[in-house]
Structure formats: C-alpha cells, structure tokens
Give the backbone structure.
Amino acid sequence: MSVISSTKNLEALSFTLVAEFDAGVERVWQLWEDPRQLERWWGPPTWPATFDRFEFQPGGKAGYYMTGPEGEKAGGWWRFTTIQAPNKLEFDDGFADENGEPVDTLGITHATVALEESGGRTRMTIVSTFESEDQMEQMVQMGMEEGMKEAVGQIDAILAEHANA
C-alpha cells in the first residue's frame, strides 16, 4: 500500500496522511484535477464517489456524493481556495444534503494537499484541519482515518493502468 503514515494531532486539530507513488508529480496531480479520475479513488472502496459539480479554480466549487453498499448516499462539497498546479491544492470540505446544499452538522474542515518529487516517486501529503476538538473526534469516530487510508490505497492501481497503457 502506498500510505506511509497517518497522524492525528489533537493540539493542532489536524490529521495528516502521507503516501508515495511510483509516478511523477504531474501524473499524480491529474488524479485531483480530473473529476473522472478523482471518482475512482475519493472515498473508500465500499463508498465510491460521484462528482456532479467540479469547478477546478480558486473560489470554484465541487459537489459529490458517495454511495454506500446498501445504496445510501452521503453528500459532500468542496470550495477550492488555492490551486498551484502541480504541487499544491487547498479546499474547504463539508457535508451536503440530498440537493448538494451544505449542512452545518459537522462543520467544515480545511484540506491542504502537497505533491513533491521524492527520489523518482511522488510524495503526497494531505493535511485536514478541524474547527474544534469535538469535530475532529466525531470525524475520527465516523471512520475518516481508515476511510482516507482505503481511498488513497486505490491510487496505485489507477496509476498502474496508465503506466501500462
């Protein structure tokens, strides 16, 4: 598996996931900027994502839902705050209702994604920052850490397809 580490830092109200891939930075960046590729790994394998809105520009929004094993749907939204291709991406992240409208139930997290060349591979660091300790604990209890590991763990197979194509 490509995930090297995942760290919760209660003092910083953050969760950091680090992964490395056998592909160049530009190729790994495509997994974020192309919603069809993003759908193939965002969300754990049993909860695949479908992006129905994707405005990949600073201030742009993305809307998606993940479909569970019983057909249940969980909505989410992003608001892109920083895009510096191919090395840095930042966005606010929250839950959405069945119409894709933001809901405040669990607040907003802020994600920072950094991609850097590392010995012929690409190191991806995702830092999620929370509004409060309560919010962080709720997200961890919901399975965020395991879900992120499973989601990122799907990336190697996608990269391998393109390497062999």
Q: What stands out?
A: Residues 77 and 106 are 13 Å apart (CA to CA). The chain has one domain: 3-164. The beta strands are 3-9, 14-21, 49-54, 61-67, 73-84, 88-96, 102-103, 109-118, 121-129.
